[in-house]
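Posting for a labmate who doesn't have an account.
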Amino acid sequence: MKCMQKIAIIPNLTKKGAYETTLAVIRHLTEKGVEVYLAEALRSSFEQLPVQYCLNHDELCEKAEMILTVGGDGTIIHAAFHASFFHKPLLGINMGRLGFAAELESDELSMLDRLLVGDYAIEHRMMLKILHQTGQAERTYYAMNDAVISRGSLSRLIDIDVSLVADQGYICHYRADGLIFSTPTGSSAYSLAAGGPVVEPTMKCILMTPVCSHSLFARPVLFSHYSEIAVSASCDDDTQVFLTVDGARTVVIDRSDRILIAEAEIDTEFIRLKDRSFYRVLQDKFTERGQQS
């Protein structure tokens, strides 16, 4: 593998201990001759250190050979959107709670040395492309974890129709609180909490999980990654319906809107430094959470 000599760091300094860990990472890398890049907005926090600053995350991704995040899974998801478009691999240092997508904990920084000699593996994860068709307009979103169609604050169910675009095949109708469309990576997030299965993250498929469906037979459904799924939703006039992408971007959808969900043309590349299976990670993370609760 390529020896990494230019590394961009995207930290979430609101996380407890993230500032101290970011300092330690910068010092560790720069002492070994690595060029480190940070966003300009962080200059005042790290101005005494020998780093280079970029105007935004796109410039960071363009200049660096890889992206290193310091934070939780949300920080990784945010960084993945930028890194994927520039085909730059991603590595997360966990400062959150579970940290499914993170590779290292804050006490494992010595393992970063393996990046400098090319001693790592790359793992590809599929993403979702979501088209929101409303009137004559069409907006495009990308998700590493999931796209969720859900009701507003009023306690009323919404009606959701699902079909396949290619053969115009009607699949089903749900009356529910919502519907989750997730990648295999996202199967261990909101979908899991809603009763969906855990899917090995390097697989390629689209998982559909209903949320509190008013039906005796509502079960999660796995679609081939070749599928293009069309979704429409409606509700009472005083109840809003929302589309939420990766828990970060939310838009209102009308009854005449159509949502198209398919595999994205880009994927996320994760750097792996440890020789452990996803199932071992899953077991370790949930054991750790059980001990903390």
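Reply:
Got it, the structure tokens are right above this. The chain is about 20% helix and 40% strand.
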